[in-house]
User: Fold this.
Amino acid sequence: MERALASCVIAARAAIIHTRRTKEEWVLTFAGMTVAILGLVAGPAAPAAAPAPAPTLKPVRIMTMNECADILLLQMVPKARIASVTYRAHDAIQWIEPGLDAGVPINHGSAEEIVAEKPDLIIAGDFSTAVTKRVARAAGAPLIEIRSATSFEDIRQITRQVGAAVGEPQRADALIAEMDATLASLAASRPPRPFVVAAWSGDSVPGRKTLANAIIEAAGAVNIASKLDTETYNSFGAEELLAARPDVLMYGATSASKPSLTDAQNGLLMRIYAGRRITYPETLYNCGVPQSAKAALDLRRALVAVEGRGRR
Assistant:
């Protein structure tokens, strides 16, 4: 720096001795030298500060058009940010936290409701109609689709997808962490002799590439249909069920108080499997939500109770 200052001084003296300039030229010359000297003293200029990132706005009028999305949304955001959930949300949420949907408006998935509610985010399923998608685009509402889950890894991805879309990634991570803790606990204490179970709907059983199969396996049981040719749902009548002789008969409930298989419909099976029947929540076996791990835990506990009564 000292050498640079000396160079500036020498240059100034040379200009005075060897150059005849007007008064204005002298003013400009020394002004330029002064700026140069001050710059050397002050050192290099600090780089300009980067502009602050624009704040990310969370959607505040979210509309769901899928029962599984209802469950995730109700657990992630306050009710004030929900424009509406589907009419199926009330029964679905009973398996997780009864009353969580209280006061939240419902929709029936119509185009008119999209236009009227003016959502700033629509969460739909992979079976949403083309009309729904066209109306959402026409209304200028962002739309995300969540696919049907067939594994717990799918549930992780779907939960993160919804969490990112609604601006609540930390809440999504917390739900996944709780699910993974439950699965780890189940994996650490598998039964020595697993039950063979049939999750029978009256005419079909879930195949190996279904969420129901993933839940049954996580519970430490064997799905009677896991080795059949069909990967999704297999046609399975009462005669086939009796011939297969599973240890336990599982039958679904569409709500917390409404089993879908009744004694009147299948009296013979009810008698044969007295003490070996387990009711399971269809919603948690069909929807990819973190509480599907809790469904596996409940199944494990129910199977332990059957073991306590003795196998046949």
Summary: The chain has a mean pLDDT of 80. The first helix runs from residue 2 to 18. The radius of gyration is 34 Å.
